[in-house]
């Protein structure tokens, strides 16, 4: 964990645009496509199914934080305490992922205590001097501390330390069983960075080379591994998402595992995942990826996808997982909906750039914004130009972001910078062959 700079906002401006009044709830047209049911039809619901839930009650929320959470980010820390019952809520902090678990655990305990929680750090970490993490994960005293708590907070670091300690060889330890029982009875499971990455049933273990993943490097035990499963089997969570261009690795893994939904949380922001909805706290926001109507052509010989749907959720936004209804925060809903079909519509962006590093910091959000509040389409390339790039070294990928009848957008400048909610942006990704060398010295 550490201090993280938020995504740079699109420069503020005054503009005239035609907007159409929007209701607080806008049902995306995607819900009317074949195979998508209404909220009342649970047979094909998109609701997250928590494996820990029991017939006697609903599991608690899962709070995925995108990393670089500031210790003075009061909105997130206070919400964590409120979700666990308010002042006096008992939290245990699990710094298993950290390379400096004592210091990081103490900082998280202090941040939770500042906002009213009664928190303690569990000494269960392979990098904690003088302790045996495997033995601690089986210690009845550690298990009892979890049973007395109302929330668990996993710190950042390396997610492989979490799964290797709490479920070595895929077998849950007594400590992980106790954490799952806490969740089943309504307790909060929260994690930042690596702690968020481990929340899904499958996770990225060590996949820092996004282009290599797009080229097919998804080896069990290397790039991917089994996660802790708190968000169920249908929702894949990733973190540091827009800053590090991780959409490029999320899509291939979702396709390989047949997962319909993905959630990429940006730094210093939290996505609160309830049984059937997601809400966002923090200006960095999160990207929701919907593959319900997406397709891929295996005959192409490389990763490709058509008709993925992307929604950027900003601070205060909500999404219903059963229907993909996006509810923008009141500040954006009150200013109006961006409506390209309205008479006199004047987009802010008149020209679309071609993005030569579409997975660069903030580029995906920029492309989505221009597609919705501009000409309607943005294209860009993802590739690795290094001489030692993963083979084949002439393979790249073209991203195409498009606004269509299923796309919606909202805008506000009330905070002094432009803030958007973007729903249902279409994304197609196609493999392309790059020139090698990519460029040569200029000569007449």
List the helices and strands and how they pair.
Layout: E1 19-20, E2 62-65, H1 74-83, E3 90-94, H2 101-114, E4 118-122, H3 133-136, H4 140-147, E5 151-154, H5 159-166, H6 174-184, E6 188-192, H7 194-197, E7 202-204, H8 210-214, E8 224-226, E9 235-239, H9 247-257, E10 261-265, E11 270-273, E12 277-281, E13 286-290, E14 305-313, E15 318-320, E16 325-327, H10 330-335, E17 337-338, E18 354-355, H11 363-372, E19 377-382, E20 395-402, E21 408-412, E22 419-433
Helix pairs in contact: 4-6
Report on this structure:
This protein has 444 residues and is of the alpha+beta class. The chain has a domain at 58-330: Rossmann fold (3-Layer(aba) Sandwich), CATH 3.40.50.880. Helices cover 20% and strands 24% of the residues. The protein contains eleven helices and 22 strands. The strands form three sheets. Strands 1, 9, 10, 13, 14, 17, 18, 19, 20, 21 and 22 form an eleven-stranded mixed β-sheet that branches. The chain has a nine-stranded mixed β-sheet with strand order 4-3-5-6-2-11-12-15-16, sandwiched between helices. The protein has a two-stranded antiparallel ribbon with strand order 7-8. β11 (270-273) and β12 form a beta hairpin. α4 (140-147) packs parallel to α6. The longest helix has 14 residues, at 101-114. The chain is globular and about 70 Å long.
Q: What attributes does this structure have?
A:
alpha+beta; 20% helix; eleven-stranded mixed sheet; 444 residues; Rossmann fold
Concise overview:
20% of the residues lie in helices and 24% in strands. By secondary structure, it is of the alpha+beta class. The protein has a domain of 273 residues: Rossmann fold (3-Layer(aba) Sandwich).
């Amino acid at each position: 964990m550490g201090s993280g700079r938020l995504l740079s906002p699109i420069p503020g401006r005054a503009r005239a645009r035609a907007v159409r009044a929007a209701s607080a709830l806008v049902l995306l047209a995607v819900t009317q496509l074949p195979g998508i049911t209404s909220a009342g039809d649970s047979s094909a619901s998109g609701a997250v199914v928590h494996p820990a839930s029991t017939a006697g009650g609903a599991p608690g929320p899962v709070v995925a934080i995108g990393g670089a959470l500031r210790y003075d980010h009061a909105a997130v820390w206070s919400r964590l305490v409120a979700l666990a019952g308010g002042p006096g809520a008992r939290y245990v902090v699990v710094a298993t992922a950290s390379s400096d678990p004592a210091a990081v655990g103490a900082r998280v305990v202090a941040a939770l205590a500042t906002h009213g929680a009664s928190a303690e750090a569990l000494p269960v970490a392979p990098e904690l001097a003088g302790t045996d993490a495997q033995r601690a994960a089986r210690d009845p005293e550690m298990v009892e501390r979890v049973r007395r708590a109302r929330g668990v907070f996993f710190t950042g670091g390396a997610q492989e330390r979490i799964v290797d300690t709490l479920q070595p060889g895929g077998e849950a330890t007594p400590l992980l069983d106790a954490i799952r029982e806490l969740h089943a009875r309504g307790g909060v499971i929260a994690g930042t960075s690596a702690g968020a990455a481990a929340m899904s049933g499958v996770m990225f273990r060590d996949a820092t080379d996004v282009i290599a993943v797009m080229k097919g490097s998804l080896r069990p035990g290397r790039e991917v591994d089994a996660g802790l499963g708190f968000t169920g089997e249908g929702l894949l969570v990733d973190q540091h998402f827009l800053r590090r261009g991780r959409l490029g690795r999320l899509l291939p893994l979702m396709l390989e595992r047949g997962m319909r939904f993905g959630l990429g949380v940006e730094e210093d922001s939290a996505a609160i995942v309830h049984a059937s909805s997601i809400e966002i706290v923090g200006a960095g926001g999160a990207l929701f990826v919907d593959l319900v109507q997406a397709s891929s052509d295996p005959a192409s010989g490389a990763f490709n996808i058509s008709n993925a749907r992307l929604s950027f959720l900003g601070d205060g936004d909500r999404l219903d997982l059963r229907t993909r209804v996006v509810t923008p925060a009141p500040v954006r809903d009150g200013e109006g909906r961006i409506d390209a079909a309205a008479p006199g519509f004047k987009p802010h962006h008149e020209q679309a750039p071609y993005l030569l590093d579409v997975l660069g910091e903030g580029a995906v959000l920029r492309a989505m914004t221009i597609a919705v509040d501009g000409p309607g389409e943005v294209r860009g390339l993802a590739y690795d130009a290094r001489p030692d790039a993963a083979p084949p070294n002439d393979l790249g990928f073209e991203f195409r972001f498009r606004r269509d009848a299923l796309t919606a957008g909202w805008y506000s400048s009330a905070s002094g910078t432009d803030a958007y909610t973007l729903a249902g942006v279409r994304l197609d990704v196609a493999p392309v062959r790059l020139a090698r060398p990519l460029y040569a010295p200029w000569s007449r």
